[in-house]
Amino acid sequence: EELKILSENNNIEIRRTNITNRQLRGDLDVANAELYNTQEKLIETERIYTISEQNLQKLTMNKNELNSEIETLRHLATEVPEKDSKISDLRRLIEELNSKIRGCKEESVLISELQAKLLDNERYLNDLSENLQGALNQRDETTQL
Which burial class, exposed, middle or buried, applies to 27 when counting CB atoms under 10 A from its CB (0-12, 13-18, 19+)? Predict the structure, then answer.
């Protein structure tokens, strides 16, 4: 009789363990899916970050070129005879270049903001990845028990 009770208790415990294992497998599947999504987001974040870096370099080069052109135009403006039409043209060109520089500065600010957001996303993804790894480790420990 006692053996029968022990056997029934053992069977109940086996069923509980099977249920727990199925739940853990489900949790593992969800964690694996989240990890995959996190990895995909991290790859996309790195791609966007690289593009942003390249764009920032291009903007810096454009800004330097524009500054050089402005200096050249300013220098030429001092050498050009005092003909109103030529001076007006040069001033107009300088204003256009200054406007372009302001545009570059605005884009540079936007890129800096984007880079800050990308870094925040990367930190979030790293935290999520650590949490998922912790869940996987906990699952492994539970499975071993």
Answer: middle
CA distance 65 to 67: 5
Distance of CA 142 to the CA centre of its chain: 34
Per residue in 7-54, pLDDT (tens digit) is 999 999 999 999 999 999 999 999 999 999 999 999 999 999 999 999
Specify whether the CB–CB gap between 132 and 31 falls below 8 A.
Answer: yes
Decide: residue 16, CB within 10 A, 0-12 exposed, 13-18 middle, 19+ buried: exposed
